[in-house]
Amino acid sequence: MPLTGREAALKSLSGFRRSEIKPDRYLDSLVMRGLLPDKETALAYRLCMGVLQNANLCDYYIKHYLSSSIRKLHPAVLDILRLTTYQIVFLSRIPIPAAVNEGVKLARKYGAASLVNAVSRKIAENRENLPEVTGDTPADYLSVKYSHPKKLVEYVILRLGEAEAEQFLCKNNETPPITVRRNALLSSEEELKNELTTSGIVFRPHPWMDDFYDLQNPGNIQGLPFFLNGHCTVQDPASALVVYAAGVKENYTVLDACASPGGKTFLLAQIMRNTGHILACDRSEKKIGYINDGLKRLGIQNTECAVMDAKEQNNALVGTFDAVLCDVPCSGMGVIAKKPEIRYKSPESIQELPEIQLAILRNTADYVKAGGVLVYSTCTIMEAENENVIRSFLGERSDYTLETFRLPEPISNVPNGFMTLWPHYHKTDGFFICKLRKTI
Questions:
Q1: Contacts with 286 (C-beta within 8 Å, 6 or more apart), sequence order
Q2: Burial class (CB in 10 A: 0-12, 13-18, 19+), 200
Q3: 281 and 393: one domain?
Q4: Cβ distance 53 to 147 under 8 Å?
Q5: What is the pLDDT of residues 231-276, one digit of tens each?
Q6: Which of 3, 72, 165, 268 has a beta carbon 3.0–4.6 Å from 157's, enabling a disulfide?
Q7: What is the 3-state secondary structure (H, E, C) of 325-370?
Q8: CB atoms < 10 A from the CB of 92, how many?
């Protein structure tokens, strides 16, 4: 039986809470199975993502109007209250009575209709006069206001200071545009702009990255002509900067060791003008299949794909590449805006990552020719996964040195060989990029 947008959002939140099922993938599966009608899809995604972005703040308001402890609530009832509170506080286009009534309907299954009705109506009545967020420390305050775990907030304050940390947290709760990059192998700038306009898509050039366009609410672009004909691909500018840092040229041999979903591979081929040779690898056949589909769509002919674990040595590849890219598995703390559930990752799930990252770096370093380049990158802002991994690697490998590289303005030169991109400052995903040169 088809679900309403609110029912789908509730199921998605429950799945994430119980089993850490990725909410967007769960909703995608409902759409694929025909259980979420088109007219309800946008609401389901907005509600689910909105609650994940604002859970702490919604709880703050709920607790203020709840007569008992929030900890005593059935988890599903708390999810329903969060969904209803989010609609009342943040979604001005949804009539308040509709938000309250639909929340009450969802709560009947759990015998909590009266409770949800009472709390929701109090929040609605005080919508313009909700309790001010306070905290004993800046981290307490910011953790509630922007709904990030306190430990993560404390970490960002230590790195950036309180004022800039707030900018970072605020940026994470904004809905980012979908960014596409023009495929210069098949399309001119004018041609792509005309196609975007013809498709009715509102777009603007990225503020400082050529050939990148931010699309405003484009919906599913994968069925539109300009995408199907290979004239563009979805890619964040930060991912492209990893490729620019490598400084590849025509006729290079290049390994993209952790290639999925393929954006860096596709840009490498474009820069190399379909010359030389690129080997794109990842751990699963499914991921490699997606990359191969992209290669065909974009007219790329100099790339082959292979299933490979980047931690395991392949003797046939030792010393064969002019450049190796390692965009390693990471905590993802730089892409919270696109994947709001990431902020709730447990510290335990992250602790083992630096060891895996260092193992990949150690192994793929052997695949670089003498004089070649190794670029290490992550989509996180955590030093344990970034600078600390590089320090450990350089402590083991005297044949590698950090190398200055240049990126487009306003970044320009990166003199110490590594840098962190911050979403609130650089208008990209949060990324770490490091360039290493093999000296012997």
A1: none
A2: exposed
A3: yes
A4: yes
A5: 999 999 999 999 999 999 999 999 999 999 999 999 999 999 999 9
A6: 165
A7: EEECCCCCCCCCCCCHHHHHCCHHHHHCHHHHHHHHHHHHHCCEEE
A8: 10
**Residue 129 CB neighbour total at 10 angstroms:** 7
Contact 374, 326 (CB under 8 A): yes
What are 100-126's pLDDT values in tens digits? Answer: 999 999 999 999 999 999 999 999 999
On whether both 258 and 373 belong to a single domain, the answer is yes
258 given a catalytic annotation: no
pLDDT digits (tens, 9 = 90+) for 275-310: 999 999 999 999 999 999 999 999 999 999 999 999
Find how far residue 57's CA is from the centre of its chain. Answer: 22
Q: How many CB atoms lie within 10 A of CB 400?
A: 19
Residue 50 lies in domain:
5-129
Task: Let me know: does 237 contact 428? Beta carbons within 8 Å.
Answer: yes
- On whether both 228 and 247 belong to a single domain, the answer is no
How many domains does one find in the chain?
4
Q: Are residues 118 and 20 part of one domain?
A: yes
| pLDDT over 90 at 19, yes or no | no
The answer on 305 and 228 residing in a single domain is: no
Domain boundary residue among 234, 252, 276? Answer: 234
Q: Report the CATH number at residue 205.
A: 3.30.70.1170
Q: From the candidates 58, 232, 379, 434, which is the catalytic residue?
A: 379
Residues 6+ apart with CB under 8 A from 172: 53, 146, 148, 336, 337, 340, 343, 423
The DSSP bridge pattern shows strands 303-307 and 277-282 to be: parallel
d(CA 134, CA 227) in angstroms, rounded, equals: 47
- Label residue 217 by pLDDT band (50, 70, 90): confident
Same domain for 223 and 336, yes or no, is no
Do residues 368 and 395 share a domain?
A: yes
- Residue 358: pLDDT band with limits 50, 70, 90: very high
307 and 410 in a single domain? The answer is: yes
